[in-house]
Amino acid sequence: MAEDGDLVVVALGGVQAFIAESRTTADLAAASGIMSGLAAVAARAAAGAGARLVFPERALSGAEVPSPAAESGDLDAVGVPNRVVVLAEPGTGPQVAERAAGAVRDAWASWVRREFPTLGDAAPDTPGFPDVSWVCVPAERGDYATKWVLAQRALAARRSVRAFEAVDEPARPLCSLSPRWAASEPPPKARRHHRGERLSRANWIKRQRGLFEDGARFPSTYAIASATFRRKVDEHWTDGTVVEAVQELHEAVSRLSKRRETPVPGLARPGGDRLRAWLAECAGGWVYPERWRVETLWEEIQGRRGEDLQALREKELPALAARGERAARALIDHMRRVHGVPAPAIYLAVIVQDLDGMGEFLSTGQDGGPVTVHYHRSVSRTLIELAGRQAEALRSRKLLGVPVYAGGDDLLAFTPAATALQAAAQVNRLVEETAGLPHASTAVLFFHHSAQLRRAVVEVQRMLKEAKSRVPGKHALAVGYLRRSGVREETIQPWAPTRGGCSPQTLFDLLSRHQEFVLSPRLVADLERDAAELAGLRPHIYEAELRRLVGRHVSGGDRDGREQWVGQTVRALLELGAQECSSDGSGVRPVPLARVGVFLRQEAR
User: What are 153-168's pLDDT values in tens digits?
Assistant: First the structure.
């Protein structure tokens, strides 16, 4: 069989919603792993039935698919796409597709029953999930290119025909994350402090797959947000006062919890120095003074046994909270006073990336030639290799990123606020450097480390969709923030260089660079107030007025340095403002940029 077999496409639906319905980073990573694992199950089942894999171009072994019983804390972010494409022997396509779809349903049911053994042979109680569908184009319909076009049309039509299972759940509360399902009793192995949550069986599976005996399998938002600060503390380890402050912090934490965090991959883990290793692996949330509140510490000790917890709360926790807060403040104050290092960031970023027009791209052969199996398998290999390079780059000590999923054609990752725009530029650059692929669009959203994770993921996905629709030709970059109060802003730019020849990231860096100069947020109020007048000015007068406004609201440094900085800031506002594509108006618009720029200067540290 070369290209004359039945063409089968097996697709998993609802991926973004299932991933977004997560309360913690561990839930989110587990959801991504579940979907990737189910897609791998479909690929292996189809290959086992004698079909030839096209996407992915090779079957994964069972060890490469995350399982509920996995023992390693490292989740490989390079995953399997949610569509599996195969060529089956003529006349066998429907049987291969049914086998693959059935394997997906059976795998999910086995995972649910493993966590809920009392179910026995009963259904997994997750109606509509997994949402697996398939289409088959018989061999006699034409060559591979013809069958591919027909398969895409059939799949689009198939998605518009939904089969909804009847759900009758009288007097049962709904899941707090996925209200389309009823809440379930917790599984027998659920953590004690998780048992009060109202979750469906599907979300309990996420929770259980995301945890191990020693804690979370995915770094927390606290650990990611504070990673740049802890890296800088590690870089000044020869300072005895720094070591003493970390030691004091460690001693306070050790009285409270011995639980090990999952470290951010890019943080060094020195082998011989246990205190230094603790800073990298376990201090993620404890460097924040506000974390040392009695109420927060009380939540930490809920799982401890054999102790009078109420007595501990009344007698020891207040003193422990004061000690830990004092140690955290001492470390922060010394780093700022002696080494010029700002306090740990309270924001982190979520990054999503998606290749533009993949459906059209895959329907057009290499160099405009016919679409072939060889071409599609080549693209599949290229995407897998690209995903590996992107994940490796994100995990570097420079970026301190934590990829959740990298499939080549799309990506989801978290980074500290300070490295987010560099990370976005790097994953985009890797796409541009990979021959034979379309451009990519990217969205970067900054959010508070204790904000609702689900809202951040939904918002960044919306930003990406908006950016693709507003930039002509796509290849878009959206940068936004979501404050804990609910205030939000975003700017949408083309990834292409500006008229001055600069990349958007370079100009954003000019806006956000932390120097001795302070830009007042009142600049935004003035720009908003004068927006109509500014839009009507001639270019040279507009530039002069913008320079006046920026100069009016900047302080610090000497006069010459301040004037040079004002010129750089005005350049960034002019060049990015001239190509602003966000939805709040038309023409030259510096307001979204100014808002985002002020935010970056305040929080991206």
Answer: 999 898 887 766 666 6
